[in-house]
Structure formats: C-alpha cells, structure tokens
Amino acid sequence: MNLSNFDFRIQKAELDDLNALKTLIKKSKLVHEEIETHLENFFVIKEESNIIGCAGIEHYDDVGLLRSVAVDIKYQRKGLGKKLINKMIVFAEEKGIENLYLLTDSAEEFFKKFGFKLVSRNDVDSRIQQTYEYTTACDETASVMVKRLN
Question: How does 67-96 read in b/e, with b if 16+ C-beta sit within 10 Å?
C-alpha cells in the first residue's frame, strides 16, 4: 500500500469510536481498560470510517502517560505510528505536560527515536505510579520511558 494514495486523517476520538478503539487496542495486545476515562485525550487514524490507528494520553497536571499506541497490522510499517507519536507529543506540549511517560514490553527502540529515555521505576512521578497501567496492567518487567517536553 502506497501512503500517497492512502486517505487517512488523525482526529480526536469520539464516544462513537469507543468500541472500535477498544477492539483495535485489544487486538494489539495493549491495555484497553479505562480508555473511556481519558477518551478526550485520545486520537484515532481513520481510513474512511474504520479506525486503523490510535494513541492516547492520561493527563495529570504537568505529567502524562502515553498509552495505547496501536496501528492495525495491515497498515503497519507505513509511518502511521510515527505520525501518531508526533501528534501526541505536540498535543502533550499544548496541554502543558512537561514529562511524558510510557510503559512498553517491546518497543523501546521505536520510542527512543522520538527522544524517550529509559528511566528507573523509582524515578517515575508518583501520579504515573498510581495509574491502572502502571500498578495493574503492565508487568514490573515493562520498561518505563520518559520524554521531557518544553
């Protein structure tokens, strides 16, 4: 598939997107719990009316947790994940987030390309340590990364 012929748009997720959003995230084996709580901070990529990518942020004052970054397997390796991450970084900066965290089991190298750095679990902001993803959903073996924003 050539992206130049590919009509996609990144847009804010809406309540009507919730079921399709959760389905994509579950298929991607990512944390889907509590999405509705943070839906206003989720973005989706659609091709026509189908959600083929998504990402969200849990926002706690000046810190955030980047979560549920997923691209449908048929659309991977086409730069859509990169576009989502860049969108989320800009969105986080607009929200006044200074430290954007994430947890990952398998994508450290991917996120390093965007300036995320590994951080010790002891150095994670306490507000992030209280999230469902940090306390329950992700193994303690998951890598924690942070990007300092302007």
Answer: bbbbbbeebeebebbebbbeebbebbeeee
Phi and psi (nearest 5°) for 63? -125, 155
3-148 CATH pick, 3.40.630.30, 3.20.20.70, 2.70.130.10, 2.40.110.10: 3.40.630.30
Model confidence pLDDT, tens digit, residues 121-148: 889 999 998 988 887 766 677 889 999 9
Largest interatomic CA distance in the chain: 46
* pLDDT digit string, tens, across residues 64-116: 999 999 999 999 988 899 999 999 999 999 999 999 999 998 889 999 999 99
Q: How is residue 144 written in tokens?
A: 């924690």
Query: Cβ distance 22 to 36 under 8 Å?
Result: no
| Structural domain boundaries in the chain | 3-148
Q: Answer whether 0.85 is exceeded by the pTM.
A: yes
The neighbour count for residue 59, using CB atoms within 10 Å, is 19
Other CB atoms within 10 A of residue 53 CB: 24
